[in-house]
Design a protein that fits this description.
The structure holds two protein chains of two kinds. By secondary structure, chain A is mainly alpha-helical. Chain A has a domain of 55 residues. Chain B is an alpha/beta fold. Chain B has a domain of 149 residues: Rossmann fold (3-Layer(aba) Sandwich). In chain B, the strands form two sheets. In chain B, strands 6-7-8-3-9-10 form a six-stranded mixed beta sheet, with helices on both faces. Chain B has a four-stranded antiparallel beta sheet with strand order 2-1-4-5, covered by helices on one side. Classes of the chains: A mainly alpha, B alpha/beta. The interface between A and B is medium-sized, with 19 and 22 residues.
Chain lengths: 96, 223
Protein backbone atom coordinates (compact mmCIF):
# COMPACT_ATOMS: atom_id res chain seq x y z
CA UNK A 1 0.00 0.00 0.00
CA UNK A 2 2.81 2.37 0.92
CA UNK A 3 4.68 1.59 -2.31
CA UNK A 4 1.47 2.26 -4.24
CA UNK A 5 1.29 5.73 -2.65
CA UNK A 6 4.90 6.37 -3.63
CA UNK A 7 4.26 5.23 -7.18
CA UNK A 8 1.16 7.44 -7.36
CA UNK A 9 3.21 10.51 -6.43
CA UNK A 10 5.79 9.58 -9.06
CA UNK A 11 3.18 8.87 -11.71
CA UNK A 12 1.33 12.14 -11.03
CA UNK A 13 4.59 14.00 -11.62
CA UNK A 14 4.72 12.56 -15.16
CA UNK A 15 1.02 12.91 -15.92
CA UNK A 16 0.70 16.59 -16.86
CA UNK A 17 3.14 16.37 -19.75
CA UNK A 18 1.70 13.04 -20.94
CA UNK A 19 -1.84 14.44 -21.00
CA UNK A 20 -0.86 17.75 -22.63
CA UNK A 21 1.11 15.94 -25.34
CA UNK A 22 -1.72 13.50 -26.02
CA UNK A 23 -4.38 16.23 -26.18
CA UNK A 24 -2.20 18.21 -28.60
CA UNK A 25 -1.71 15.20 -30.87
CA UNK A 26 -5.43 14.39 -30.68
CA UNK A 27 -6.37 17.96 -31.65
CA UNK A 28 -3.85 18.10 -34.51
CA UNK A 29 -4.44 14.65 -35.97
CA UNK A 30 -7.84 13.58 -34.81
CA UNK A 31 -8.85 11.79 -38.04
CA UNK A 32 -9.33 8.49 -36.20
CA UNK A 33 -11.41 10.16 -33.52
CA UNK A 34 -10.23 12.37 -30.67
CA UNK A 35 -10.31 9.71 -27.95
CA UNK A 36 -8.61 7.05 -30.08
CA UNK A 37 -5.77 9.37 -31.11
CA UNK A 38 -5.49 10.58 -27.50
CA UNK A 39 -5.19 6.94 -26.39
CA UNK A 40 -2.57 6.08 -29.01
CA UNK A 41 -0.52 9.18 -28.14
CA UNK A 42 -0.85 8.49 -24.40
CA UNK A 43 0.36 4.90 -24.72
CA UNK A 44 3.29 5.79 -27.00
CA UNK A 45 4.76 9.29 -27.12
CA UNK A 46 3.13 10.44 -23.86
CA UNK A 47 5.26 8.33 -21.56
CA UNK A 48 8.35 8.72 -23.75
CA UNK A 49 8.14 12.51 -23.51
CA UNK A 50 7.31 12.68 -19.80
CA UNK A 51 10.00 10.20 -18.78
CA UNK A 52 12.53 11.95 -21.02
CA UNK A 53 11.60 15.28 -19.42
CA UNK A 54 12.00 13.71 -15.97
CA UNK A 55 15.41 12.34 -16.99
CA UNK A 56 16.58 15.73 -18.20
CA UNK A 57 15.16 18.01 -15.50
CA UNK A 58 14.45 15.97 -12.35
CA UNK A 59 16.64 12.89 -12.72
CA UNK A 60 17.73 13.08 -9.10
CA UNK A 61 14.16 12.48 -7.86
CA UNK A 62 14.78 8.79 -8.51
CA UNK A 63 17.17 8.86 -5.52
CA UNK A 64 14.20 9.58 -3.25
CA UNK A 65 12.33 6.49 -4.45
CA UNK A 66 15.53 4.40 -4.25
CA UNK A 67 15.87 5.50 -0.64
CA UNK A 68 12.30 4.29 -0.17
CA UNK A 69 13.26 0.90 -1.63
CA UNK A 70 11.96 1.31 -5.19
CA UNK A 71 14.35 0.91 -8.11
CA UNK A 72 14.28 3.34 -11.02
CA UNK A 73 13.52 0.50 -13.45
CA UNK A 74 10.40 -0.42 -11.41
CA UNK A 75 9.11 3.16 -11.57
CA UNK A 76 9.77 3.50 -15.30
CA UNK A 77 8.22 0.14 -16.23
CA UNK A 78 5.17 0.76 -14.00
CA UNK A 79 4.68 4.20 -15.53
CA UNK A 80 4.83 2.77 -19.07
CA UNK A 81 2.39 -0.02 -18.19
CA UNK A 82 -0.15 2.37 -16.65
CA UNK A 83 0.02 4.63 -19.72
CA UNK A 84 -0.46 1.63 -22.04
CA UNK A 85 -3.45 0.42 -20.02
CA UNK A 86 -5.09 3.87 -19.93
CA UNK A 87 -4.39 4.37 -23.65
CA UNK A 88 -5.87 0.95 -24.48
CA UNK A 89 -8.99 1.71 -22.41
CA UNK A 90 -9.45 4.96 -24.37
CA UNK A 91 -9.20 3.14 -27.70
CA UNK A 92 -11.54 0.31 -26.65
CA UNK A 93 -14.04 2.81 -25.20
CA UNK A 94 -14.02 4.84 -28.43
CA UNK A 95 -14.75 1.75 -30.53
CA UNK A 96 -17.26 0.12 -28.21
CA UNK B 1 24.17 -5.65 24.59
CA UNK B 2 23.40 -6.20 20.88
CA UNK B 3 26.14 -6.78 18.34
CA UNK B 4 26.74 -3.85 15.98
CA UNK B 5 25.82 -4.24 12.32
CA UNK B 6 28.76 -4.11 9.93
CA UNK B 7 28.90 -2.65 6.42
CA UNK B 8 31.94 -3.81 4.48
CA UNK B 9 32.92 -2.54 1.08
CA UNK B 10 35.66 -4.57 -0.50
CA UNK B 11 37.69 -4.71 -3.73
CA UNK B 12 35.95 -1.70 -5.27
CA UNK B 13 37.55 -0.82 -8.56
CA UNK B 14 36.27 1.80 -10.96
CA UNK B 15 37.83 3.29 -14.06
CA UNK B 16 36.66 5.86 -16.56
CA UNK B 17 38.31 5.11 -19.91
CA UNK B 18 41.91 4.45 -18.92
CA UNK B 19 41.83 6.54 -15.74
CA UNK B 20 41.55 4.50 -12.54
CA UNK B 21 39.31 6.38 -10.09
CA UNK B 22 39.03 3.74 -7.37
CA UNK B 23 41.61 1.03 -6.93
CA UNK B 24 40.81 -1.97 -4.74
CA UNK B 25 39.04 0.07 -2.05
CA UNK B 26 38.22 -1.50 1.31
CA UNK B 27 36.03 0.38 3.78
CA UNK B 28 34.30 -0.81 6.92
CA UNK B 29 31.60 0.96 8.89
CA UNK B 30 29.73 -0.37 11.92
CA UNK B 31 26.64 1.00 13.59
CA UNK B 32 27.87 3.66 15.99
CA UNK B 33 30.56 4.78 13.54
CA UNK B 34 30.72 8.14 11.83
CA UNK B 35 33.31 7.78 9.10
CA UNK B 36 34.66 10.92 7.40
CA UNK B 37 35.75 10.62 3.80
CA UNK B 38 37.96 13.41 2.47
CA UNK B 39 39.38 13.98 -0.96
CA UNK B 40 39.99 16.64 -3.54
CA UNK B 41 37.42 17.31 -6.27
CA UNK B 42 37.24 14.49 -8.78
CA UNK B 43 38.96 11.88 -6.62
CA UNK B 44 35.92 9.60 -6.61
CA UNK B 45 34.25 10.23 -3.23
CA UNK B 46 30.76 10.61 -4.69
CA UNK B 47 31.36 7.73 -7.07
CA UNK B 48 32.32 5.49 -4.15
CA UNK B 49 29.13 6.41 -2.23
CA UNK B 50 26.99 5.75 -5.32
CA UNK B 51 28.68 2.38 -5.82
CA UNK B 52 28.01 1.44 -2.19
CA UNK B 53 24.36 2.51 -2.51
CA UNK B 54 24.07 0.54 -5.75
CA UNK B 55 23.22 3.20 -8.31
CA UNK B 56 26.62 3.33 -10.01
CA UNK B 57 28.27 0.38 -11.69
CA UNK B 58 31.77 -0.59 -10.62
CA UNK B 59 34.28 -2.72 -12.49
CA UNK B 60 34.46 -4.82 -9.35
CA UNK B 61 32.84 -4.57 -5.92
CA UNK B 62 31.68 -6.52 -2.90
CA UNK B 63 29.24 -4.80 -0.56
CA UNK B 64 28.42 -6.88 2.48
CA UNK B 65 26.26 -6.31 5.53
CA UNK B 66 27.02 -8.55 8.49
CA UNK B 67 29.11 -10.74 6.22
CA UNK B 68 26.33 -11.28 3.65
CA UNK B 69 26.81 -9.92 0.16
CA UNK B 70 24.01 -7.61 -0.95
CA UNK B 71 22.45 -9.78 -3.60
CA UNK B 72 19.95 -7.30 -4.98
CA UNK B 73 19.64 -3.58 -5.49
CA UNK B 74 16.37 -3.47 -3.54
CA UNK B 75 17.97 -5.08 -0.47
CA UNK B 76 20.71 -2.46 -0.64
CA UNK B 77 18.09 0.28 -0.73
CA UNK B 78 16.47 -1.12 2.43
CA UNK B 79 19.73 -1.39 4.37
CA UNK B 80 21.48 1.75 3.12
CA UNK B 81 20.22 5.31 2.66
CA UNK B 82 21.96 7.85 0.47
CA UNK B 83 22.01 11.64 0.45
CA UNK B 84 23.04 12.75 -3.02
CA UNK B 85 24.84 16.02 -3.67
CA UNK B 86 21.83 17.36 -5.53
CA UNK B 87 18.38 17.76 -4.03
CA UNK B 88 16.19 14.70 -4.57
CA UNK B 89 12.79 15.16 -2.92
CA UNK B 90 9.73 15.21 -5.23
CA UNK B 91 9.07 18.91 -5.61
CA UNK B 92 5.40 18.74 -6.58
CA UNK B 93 4.18 18.01 -3.03
CA UNK B 94 4.30 19.82 0.32
CA UNK B 95 6.76 19.32 3.17
CA UNK B 96 4.09 17.64 5.30
CA UNK B 97 3.08 15.37 2.43
CA UNK B 98 6.66 14.24 1.88
CA UNK B 99 7.04 13.57 5.62
CA UNK B 100 3.85 11.48 5.63
CA UNK B 101 4.96 9.69 2.48
CA UNK B 102 8.38 8.86 3.93
CA UNK B 103 7.74 7.98 7.57
CA UNK B 104 5.45 5.69 9.54
CA UNK B 105 2.35 7.46 10.83
CA UNK B 106 3.53 7.18 14.45
CA UNK B 107 6.70 9.17 13.64
CA UNK B 108 5.04 11.94 11.63
CA UNK B 109 3.90 14.09 14.57
CA UNK B 110 7.23 14.14 16.37
CA UNK B 111 9.08 14.77 13.10
CA UNK B 112 6.73 17.60 12.13
CA UNK B 113 7.15 19.33 15.48
CA UNK B 114 10.78 20.15 14.59
CA UNK B 115 11.16 23.91 15.20
CA UNK B 116 13.10 24.43 11.98
CA UNK B 117 10.55 22.65 9.78
CA UNK B 118 7.31 23.64 11.50
CA UNK B 119 6.89 27.02 9.72
CA UNK B 120 7.21 25.34 6.31
CA UNK B 121 5.00 22.26 6.66
CA UNK B 122 2.37 23.48 4.21
CA UNK B 123 4.92 24.84 1.70
CA UNK B 124 5.75 23.03 -1.51
CA UNK B 125 9.20 21.43 -1.57
CA UNK B 126 10.27 23.67 -4.44
CA UNK B 127 9.63 26.80 -2.35
CA UNK B 128 12.16 25.89 0.38
CA UNK B 129 15.58 27.51 0.50
CA UNK B 130 18.61 25.32 -0.22
CA UNK B 131 19.51 25.10 3.47
CA UNK B 132 15.98 24.24 4.64
CA UNK B 133 15.69 21.59 1.94
CA UNK B 134 19.06 20.06 2.83
CA UNK B 135 18.07 19.92 6.51
CA UNK B 136 14.76 18.24 5.64
CA UNK B 137 16.47 15.69 3.38
CA UNK B 138 19.08 14.80 6.01
CA UNK B 139 16.54 14.53 8.81
CA UNK B 140 14.27 12.33 6.68
CA UNK B 141 17.10 9.98 5.68
CA UNK B 142 18.31 9.68 9.27
CA UNK B 143 14.74 8.80 10.32
CA UNK B 144 14.48 5.85 7.91
CA UNK B 145 14.94 2.35 9.35
CA UNK B 146 18.10 1.68 7.30
CA UNK B 147 21.20 0.73 9.29
CA UNK B 148 23.67 2.76 7.25
CA UNK B 149 23.52 6.27 5.81
CA UNK B 150 25.81 7.75 3.17
CA UNK B 151 25.90 11.55 3.25
CA UNK B 152 27.41 13.28 0.23
CA UNK B 153 28.14 16.91 1.12
CA UNK B 154 25.51 17.33 3.85
CA UNK B 155 26.89 20.72 4.92
CA UNK B 156 26.96 22.22 1.45
CA UNK B 157 25.02 25.46 1.19
CA UNK B 158 23.66 25.54 4.73
CA UNK B 159 24.14 28.25 7.33
CA UNK B 160 26.36 27.78 10.44
CA UNK B 161 23.33 27.45 12.73
CA UNK B 162 21.79 24.77 10.54
CA UNK B 163 25.18 23.02 10.37
CA UNK B 164 25.08 22.77 14.17
CA UNK B 165 21.59 21.26 13.96
CA UNK B 166 22.68 18.79 11.27
CA UNK B 167 25.71 17.78 13.37
CA UNK B 168 23.33 17.18 16.28
CA UNK B 169 21.09 14.99 14.08
CA UNK B 170 24.05 12.98 12.81
CA UNK B 171 25.50 12.44 16.28
CA UNK B 172 22.20 11.33 17.78
CA UNK B 173 21.45 9.01 14.84
CA UNK B 174 24.87 7.37 15.02
CA UNK B 175 23.80 5.53 18.18
CA UNK B 176 21.79 3.16 15.99
CA UNK B 177 23.31 3.72 12.53
CA UNK B 178 26.63 3.68 10.76
CA UNK B 179 27.23 6.91 8.85
CA UNK B 180 29.73 7.76 6.12
CA UNK B 181 30.16 11.47 5.37
CA UNK B 182 32.03 13.24 2.65
CA UNK B 183 32.16 17.04 2.60
CA UNK B 184 34.68 19.78 1.85
CA UNK B 185 33.69 21.50 5.11
CA UNK B 186 36.41 19.53 6.89
CA UNK B 187 35.95 21.46 10.16
CA UNK B 188 32.40 20.14 10.47
CA UNK B 189 33.39 16.63 9.38
CA UNK B 190 36.28 16.54 11.86
CA UNK B 191 33.83 17.76 14.51
CA UNK B 192 31.40 14.91 13.95
CA UNK B 193 33.42 11.87 12.78
CA UNK B 194 35.17 9.24 14.86
CA UNK B 195 37.26 7.77 12.02
CA UNK B 196 38.33 9.25 8.73
CA UNK B 197 40.02 8.46 5.44
CA UNK B 198 41.43 10.42 2.55
CA UNK B 199 40.76 9.24 -0.97
CA UNK B 200 44.08 9.83 -2.70
CA UNK B 201 45.17 8.52 -6.08
CA UNK B 202 42.40 5.89 -6.06
CA UNK B 203 43.25 4.52 -2.60
CA UNK B 204 42.02 5.19 0.92
CA UNK B 205 44.57 6.56 3.41
CA UNK B 206 43.72 6.48 7.09
CA UNK B 207 43.66 9.93 8.68
CA UNK B 208 44.42 10.27 12.36
CA UNK B 209 44.91 14.00 12.67
CA UNK B 210 44.58 17.27 10.80
CA UNK B 211 48.34 17.06 10.11
CA UNK B 212 47.75 13.89 8.07
CA UNK B 213 45.45 15.90 5.79
CA UNK B 214 48.23 18.47 5.40
CA UNK B 215 50.85 15.79 4.73
CA UNK B 216 48.71 14.20 2.00
CA UNK B 217 48.25 17.58 0.35
CA UNK B 218 44.51 17.93 1.06
CA UNK B 219 44.98 20.96 3.35
CA UNK B 220 47.40 23.82 3.30
CA UNK B 221 49.53 23.90 6.46
CA UNK B 222 48.29 27.41 7.23
CA UNK B 223 44.60 26.86 6.51
Amino acid sequence: MHKLKLFTVFYKSTLTLSVLFSITIAVIGGGLGFITVFGIAFMTGGWVLSLYYKEVTHKNEYVYYQNMGIAKSTLVISCILVNIIIGAICIIYDHA
Amino acid sequence: MTMPDILEVDSVTKRYSERIILSDIYLKCTTGDIVGLFGRNGTGKSTLLKIIFGIEEADNKFVKINGQKLSSQSRGFREISYLSQDTFLPNNITVLEVIKLTLNQKNVDSFSSDAILKPFLSNKINSLSGGELRYLEIKLLLSLPSKFVLLDEPFNGISPLLIESVIGLIKSSSKSKGIIITDHDYHSVLNVMNRSYLLYDGSLKEINSREDLVNWGYLNAYT
